[in-house]
Design a protein that fits this description.
heterodimer, A: alpha+beta, disordered C terminus, B: alpha+beta, 31% strand
């Protein structure tokens, strides 16, 4: 085990839906209805995470998460 | 089978299990170990549990001061594992030594490092301070399960099973139907799964122990420090009662459910379970109720995982699983474990 890096992936299951909403540590976002597909997308970073924000620039980093560049 | 992740700390025992009256034998990641305490300062000692002579288990032997005397032919070992006596001759063979293991006692748990001892850093052991902090009362137990440790990780990362496997105890309909949030801190090897129920039935486990009548706000925040330590921060309160603006929470009932998931051998895992609470801490009736009720819940999991392992063992090769939204956290845990396994298998210079 090592120290926290701030390299945090987050997946929210949107209430009232079957939709998963994923946010990569780079800020890129993605929706899916299958957790396997979601993790494949997430861990494909940086592939498929153009400019970090394929669904438009976010207004800010996700709450409680440190945003990082595409450095991993 | 989930491979073992070496170069990691594992909970091997509770503090109270390691003493001087009896030697404790336990197998961790396939390595047989013997545990005892030194006479002077009570420090825990962990040695390989096989005499170098004819492989007799040292845990079935006896202590002479701080030395273990093999119960078969009397080979005698000091706390470092060095053999200091063999019967009938003065010369002690140079190779007469059993491995000693890095050990740390912390938060009422005895942690052992399995892997390259030069990489063992006690600072990386995750904390569970509630286990021996003032203001908390803990009940605990340990159940061996004849199952791949990955099945226990799956079980604990997806609490929707509470609704079905533990109905009438800790499960209510709201658990399975409430969406979860999953976070993975890659570098720290931590998976967090959060389930917040705003208006839920109060399960008997909490209704009878807290005295809450009616519906509740129920939070389940999992923090899995792969590979071994699992923390479930549970908060319940009468429906709508939230923590104060200043962060204090005088009207919430906080329960810390802790597990140590320690692989023993292939297809065998030690399930260390602990339930700590910061309410009614002096009430022995509540303590005994929680101890008995939680033991029942743990045994429901043990029976289910024993059955599941036997069932998987009878499957033809190449079977498939199906994962849905509830598995988001479990899938993350599997992936982190796979990474730790890979790192633990690498030569030393590539680990860091």
């Amino acid at each position: 085990m090592t120290s926290p890096t701030g390299e945090v992936y987050r997946i929210d299951w949107l209430p009232g839906t079957d939709v998963l909403h994923g946010t990569c540590h780079c800020g890129a976002e993605h929706t899916a209805e299958d957790p396997v597909e979601m993790w494949e997308w997430m861990l494909g970073h940086p592939e498929g995470h153009p400019e970090g924000h394929p669904e438009g620039p976010p207004e800010g980093p996700p709450e409680g998460h440190q945003q990082r560049g595409n450095d991993s | 089978m989930t491979a073992f992740a070496r170069n990691q700390w594992y909970v091997a025992a509770y503090s109270h299990e390691v003493g001087r009256e009896e030697l404790l034998g336990r197998t961790i990641l396939g390595e047989p170990l013997v545990f005892y305490r030194t006479e002077e300062d009570g420090a825990p000692v962990v040695l390989h549990d096989r005499c170098v002579h004819r492989r007799y288990p040292l845990s079935e032997s006896r202590l002479d001061g701080d030395r273990i005397v093999c119960g078969y032919h009397g080979f005698t070992y000091d706390t470092t594992g060095a053999c200091v006596y063999v019967p009938g001759q003065k010369r002690i063979p140079r190779t007469a030594r059993v491995t000693s293991y890095p050990v740390v006692e912390q938060d009422s748990l005895v942690w052992v490092w399995i892997g390259d001892p030069t990489l063992a850093d006690p600072q990386t052991i995750p904390r569970a301070r509630h286990l021996d902090s003032p203001g908390w009362t803990t009940v605990r137990g340990m159940e061996p399960i004849d199952a791949d440790y990955g099945l226990l990780v799956d079980n604990l990362l997806d609490l929707s099973h509470e609704t079905y496997l533990h109905g009438g105890y800790i499960g209510t309909p709201e658990v399975a139907r409430t969406p979860i949030t999953t976070e993975v801190d890659e570098g720290a090897g931590i998976v967090r799964v959060s389930r917040r129920m705003d208006d839920a039935e109060c399960p008997p486990f909490y209704a009878r122990s807290t005295g809450i009548e009616g519906r509740i706000t129920r939070w389940q925040d999992i923090e899995y420090h792969a590979p071994c330590l699992y923390l479930l921060h549970s908060r319940i309160a009468p429906v709508g009662v939230l923590p104060e603006a200043d962060g204090s929470d005088p009207n919430g009932f906080h329960t810390e459910i802790t597990y140590a998931i320690t692989p023993s051998a292939e297809g065998e895992v030690y399930d260390f379970w602990m339930v700590s609470r910061d309410w009614e801490t002096e009430d022995t009736e509540v303590t005994e109720f929680i101890r008995g009720n939680n033991h029942t819940v743990v045994m429901q999991d043990v029976d289910a995982l024993n059955l599941l392992q036997r069932t998987l063992g009878s499957e033809r090769t190449g079977y498939q699983e199906l994962s849905i939204n509830i598995d988001t956290g479990g899938l993350a845990a599997r992936r982190i474990l796979a990474r730790l396994v890979e790192e633990g298998d690498k030569p030393v210079e590539k680990v860091q």
